[in-house]
Specification:
Layout: E1 23-32, E2 35-45, E3 50-54, H1 61-69, E4 76-81, E5 84-85, E6 96-99, H2 111-121, H3 126-139, H4 155-168, E7 173-177, H5 185-202, E8 205-210, H6 213-219, E9 222-227, E10 230-235, H7 237-242, H8 247-252, E11 257-267, E12 270-275, E13 280-285, E14 295-300, E15 306-308, E16 318-328, E17 332-339, E18 344-350, E19 365-369, E20 376-378
Parallel strand pairs: 3-8, 3-9, 6-7, 7-8
Antiparallel strand pairs: 1-2, 1-4, 4-5, 9-10, 11-12, 11-14, 12-13, 14-20, 15-19, 16-17, 16-19, 17-18
Length: 380
């Protein structure tokens, strides 16, 4: 799971009580035929952010994006853009632009004509349009393709034309609806970094809808994880991945091992959990507090679970099982281990030796263990 590596200078306006959001969504709901597609969402997004709305199909993320664009009017609540109430303002009067998943390029126009279209609708002087189009073509590295039609371009090039057209009007906020969905995996990964570089160069606030976890983790300053019309957690990619706030977020983002148990000790620096599934006591530091006796879950990422055939002398955070499956993915192997309780656990190991030299194989008895700081206690 890739996680965004933003510049070393910290960009965290959401932690500054004096910072003013460019987008302020206040208790917004949107229902279709009585069904709540968006359910009482409040969210602030700050200037210069690359914010992603992440969730499965039908979770409400596109409806929320369309409400920001003005294509949907909320059933209740308010949307402020740059401090102005835009809840009922027409799309063409909002300081935002939207880039659609289909790109929606005009097939009869050249690349430069597509980019210039919105500027002509604004009656911008011809010389200014020409200068703006040239600057956009240079930004997306398509100047030599200016006279081509969309059907003469690759998928990645069409995506960049759509981006240039969306940015040409210099919106305060750019809304992106699954912008990389039509690209193959390799091109999608390449384009992710291009989009981030363009966003950082221009300083425009990007709000992206995606169901692709790796895409959101790679590109975003912050992520809002959505489920059934609600935002379950908002945080940086690291916060979302390392410290999920609920079982849903833990399960949704990447792979996760989850042990059920009950709290036996709750101290300021650690929580102890007795788990019959794990067959051992679980010891977690840097975790949320939970009362003694409470039923909780402990989540541990597979890459944090160490696996060995040699006996490990640890009373806590250590269990024994049998290897039932091995998934070889080239750079890593994922070991599926069944514990005595019947619980299946995953351990991800970097392949530092060739497949034929693998030290652990099917049906081997192995020990799994992890550090106290690797687990997260989930109370919801």
């Amino acid at each position: 799971m890739a996680i965004a590596d933003r510049p070393s200078t910290k960009f965290e306006p959401w932690k500054d009580p004096q910072a003013r959001p460019i987008i302020d969504i206040v208790h917004v709901s949107k229902a279709f035929d009585g069904f709540p597609a968006v359910n009482n969402i409040s969210l602030q997004i700050f200037p210069g952010e690359f914010f992603s709305l992440l969730g499965a199909s039908g979770c409400g993320k596109t409806t929320l994006l369309r409400s920001l664009a003005g294509f949907e009017i909320p059933t209740s609540g308010k949307i402020f853009i740059d401090g102005i109430n835009m809840t009922n303002v027409e799309p063409y009067n909002r300081p935002v632009n939207m880039m659609f998943q289909s790109y929606a390029l005009f097939p009869h126009m050249t690349v430069e004509q597509n980019i210039a279209f919105g500027l002509k609708q604004q009656n911008m002087p011809a010389s200014d349009i020409r200068d703006r189009v040239i600057s956009m073509l240079e930004l997306v590295h398509l100047r030599k393709y200016a006279r081509r039609k969309p059907q003469q371009l690759s998928g990645g090039q069409r995506q960049r034309v759509a981006l240039a057209r969306s940015l040409a009007k210099q919106p305060r906020v750019l809304l992106l609806d699954e912008p990389l969905g039509a690209l193959d995996r390799k091109l999608r990964e390449q384009t992710q970094f291009e989009l981030v570089n363009i966003q950082e160069t221009l300083g425009v606030t990007f709000i992206m809808v995606t169901h692709d976890q790796e895409e959101a983790m790679t590109m975003s300053t912050r992520i809002g994880v959505m489920e059934e019309g609600r935002i379950r957690q908002v945080g940086t990619p690291t916060e979302i991945y390392e410290y999920p706030s609920s079982r849903f977020v833990a399960d949704f983002i990447g792979e996760m091992n989850i042990f059920e148990g009950f709290v036996t000790e709750d101290e300021p620096d650690h929580v102890s959990i007795k788990s019959e599934e794990a067959g051992c006591d679980l010891y977690v530091t840097h975790s949320s507090s939970a009362p003694v006796g409470a039923q909780v879950a402990v989540a541990i990422r597979p890459e944090k679970v160490m696996i060995t055939k040699e006996s490990v002398q640890k009373e806590r955070n250590c269990c024994k099982g049998i290897v039932t499956e091995i998934a070889y993915l080239g750079d890593v192997s994922i070991y599926h281990v069944e514990l005595k309780s019947g619980k299946k656990i995953l351990s991800t190991v970097t392949n530092q030796v060739r497949l034929t030299e693998r030290p652990i194989n099917w049906d081997d008895e192995v020990y799994l263990h992890w550090r106290p700081e690797s687990g997260v206690v989930l109370t919801s």
